[in-house]
Amino acid sequence: MQWLGEVAGLQESLRHIAIKKQQADRLRTQAGEGEAGVASLG
Prior knowledge:
0% strand
């Protein structure tokens, strides 16, 4: 039954990884939009 705790720990880790991926994707999108805006100024 100890493996149930390990599974719960892995699920929690995966949840945190998914949140970090969403944050990284959002920042990448914002950075891309910012670069496009700067390019249009020049």
